[in-house]
Design a protein that fits this description.
About 40% of the residues lie in helices and about 15% in strands. The chain is α/β, with parallel strands linked by helices and about 375 residues long. It starts with 6 loop residues before the first helix and ends with a helix. Bound molecules: pyridoxal-5'-phosphate (PLP).
């Protein structure tokens, strides 16, 4: 009989999002508000640059951390955002997904804990488990999806290695307030834990007041890993391109994982990535903002509680008052109303459902009409 495989991995359930997407796919005419996948095309100049790179023969192994031109461009791009990272403090990764995986594998010893504010993107738990660590959930549902200082302090113990921060957030669309970030900074400085700033939605923050921990608290630099991605702001999910920035001591460890796991990202995508950095995502962001306003208005008319999203393209209304668990609610939404959402349980929070509004306005309107019908039926 074959010996057992990685037991931490074997215990992982398959992604709930995938299960609900599959159910939606099996349901003819279902409007899918499930995916975090912009419906826009990657800007044309970015696509064109790949052909030029291929024509120039950029088909060999590039440097592990990225081609110098891209690292320089990323360093300059981050400087414009108020983040001082030299090109040799950056690693170009296979999406933010690999950046997060490499970081966690580099930071964690078996049994180490990672504090994850929930609701949260499910990838973190999976990656922590793959690194033989343990997630400690920090519930933010009662505090408007903000991190409360005392709750954070209570979540940190002797085995805590890191905290994950996602702002704007998936699934809530909320951003952390300056007050929450200051509280985090004080606790992080005192305890010496690392913070993994998953900032993949930073260009899709709607308000001037949006703050990033790494910008507001540069003194924490030696404990921060800033993760970013081309996927969301430039509609480049399929390119699998992201990057991370970290002080050289951390970066040196993360780069070992990156090197042994993937070696590098494709050479011929990297000049196109430089072109993307020069493209302004504001038009897409303004489209999302308009849809956010529509979603807020419609959910409020349905009487569903909602923390107003301030970025990304998700809303996370409360559905607890409708008398169904979130999985049953989302199953019935697909089967009876023909609209697919993702249950809050997929993000560690019962009583909510995630709605993505990165779909066309027509589909969004149709989906919201159907959701409104179901909510009215459930209220009887
Ligand atoms: C919060 C968050 N982090 C990371 C990722 C992964 O992004 P990438 O496509 O760059 O791997 C996603 C994708 O949905 C996300 O929502």
């Amino acid at each position: 009989m074959p010996r057992p495989t990685n037991s931490d991995l074997a215990r992982l359930a398959t992604s709930g999002i995938r299960r609900f997407t599959a159910l939606a796919n099996e349901t003819p005419g279902c409007v899918k508000l499930t995916l975090g996948e912009p419906e826009f095309d990657t800007p044309a100049p970015v696509r064109a640059a790949v052909g030029e790179s291929l024509a120039r023969g950029l088909t060999h192994y590039p440097p592990n951390n990225g081609r110098p031109e891209l690292l320089e461009a990323l360093s300059a791009y981050m400087a414009e955002q108020g983040l001082a990272y030299a090109p040799d403090e950056l690693i170009v990764t296979v999406g933010a997904t690999e950046a997060l995986a490499a970081t966690l594998l580099a930071l964690l010893d078996p049994g180490d804990e990672v504090v994850v504010p929930v609701p949260a993107f499910g990838l973190y738990e999976t990656l922590v488990r793959m690194a033989h660590g343990r997630v400690v959930s920090l519930d933010t549902c009662e505090t408007g999806f903000q991190i409360a200082r005392d709750a954070l302090v209570a979540a940190i113990g002797p085995r805590t290695k890191a905290l994950v921060l996602t702002s704007p957030n998936n699934p809530t669309g909320c951003v952390y307030t300056a007050e929450a970030l200051d509280a985090v900074a004080e606790v992080v400085a005192r305890t010496g834990i690392y913070v993994i700033c998953d900032d993949v939605y930073n260009r899709l923050a709607y308000d001037e007041g949006y703050e990033r921990l790494a910008v507001r608290h540069p003194e924490l630099r030696g404990q921060l890993v800033v993760v970013d991605s081309f996927s969301k702001p430039w509609a480049m999910t399929g390119w699998r391109l992201g990057w991370l920035a970290a002080d050289s001591a951390i970066k040196a460890e993360v780069q070992k994982v990156h090197q042994y796991l993937v070696s590098s990202v494709p050479a011929f995508l990297q000049d196109a990535a430089v072109v993307a950095l020069g493209c302004d995502p504001a038009p897409m962001r303004e489209t999302y903002r308009r849809r956010r306003d529509l979603v807020c208005e419609r959910l409020s008319a349905m009487g569903l509680a909602l923390e107003r999203p301030a970025g990304a393209f998700y809303a996370f209304p409360g559905i607890a008052g409708l008398g169904l668990g979130s999985e049953e609610f989302c199953e019935r939404a697909i089967r009876e109303a023909g609209v697919a959402l993702v249950p809050g349980t997929c993000f560690g929070a019962e009583g909510y459902a995630r709605l993505s509004y990165c779909v066309s306005e027509d589909n969004l309107e149709r989906g919201l009409d159907r959701l409104g019908g179901l909510v009215a039926d459930l209220r009887g």
